[in-house]
TrEMBL record:
Residues 117-324 form the Alpha/beta hydrolase fold-3 domain. Belongs to the 'GDXG' lipolytic enzyme family. The keyword Metal-binding does not apply. This is Lipase. SUPFAM superfamilies: alpha/beta-Hydrolases. Keywords: Hydrolase, Signal.
Amino acid sequence: MHRVSVLLAAVALVAAGPALAAPADAAAPKAVCGDPAVDLEPVAQAFLDKLAAAGGPPIQILTPAAARQSLLNLQAAYPVSKLPADITTRTVPGGPTGSVSIRIVRPHGVSGPLPAVMYFHGGGWVLGDASTHDRLVRQIAVGARAAVVFVDYTRSPEARYPVANEQAYTATQWVARHGREIGVDGSRLAVAGDSVGGNMVAAVTLMAKERGGPKLAQQVLFYPVTDASFTTESYRRFATGCWLTAAGMKWFWDEYAPDTAVRTRPTASPLRATEAQLRGLPRALVITDSDVLSDEGRAYAEKLRASGVPVTFTHYPRMIHDFLMLNGLADSQAAKSAVAQADEALRRALHG
């Protein structure tokens, strides 16, 4: 599994299709996550073992289109039930690109204005879309009793930093001002995201403070990207074998922000923000797992707390990156617990 990167063996699903749904050969070598190795939840270990048996090229040698299709195929290889929801789409003003599409996901049959959770998806700024995150977004909508507004930001390399952040911020601002047009109460607003989406959550909260709004009641960051230094102990320990690799994360940064000079800006690397910049940001829930981003996620939670921001931090040591998004890990104890934790935080912030 040492060559596994984000979506590494998912490429094999393009050719192998449903055959990969069968259990891996008992004689196949087991994947090893971490040095020293982590004792993963059985479902996570089985997931990595299956990918190791499938093989495939590392993400950084794929085209963006091929990598995107790989994730779609991988998600489709693990059929899951999805909570019922009422879904609409809308195009709204979207910063430097002029407009951006949003997808409004409401608990099925619930009428009247609901509070809103702006959701920014993960996938290294390159991958991911409404389809890959559909199950998770529905879970949050139902659990938080809110309308989840999924922002279909322009991915990289088609757009570079800071386009996605500007789109996310402008969409958030639009919902705050015009929420009634889509059946939401824009005065009750939170932001949430996974991986690079967590990075965008941090960026949008910083932008909202700097630009005078909108007011945000809660931020939820699932295993967030918060720095571009690649020098932490978790980058060393989990460099290979744990789904998201160090090489894969570096490739994502190269696609998103090829100008390395901009990577130190707080809206690119929120961990670089000063305590003064962080002071007064909305209360935060930060969740990490056993991946290369673990240390920077923890460090960001600690820096928020040192800046006076109320923070709840939870580490899931027996789980790998993307465990909330990946359909193959949806039934893990960690995924169930983390979703429930996020739902509770959002309900308290949005419903009082």
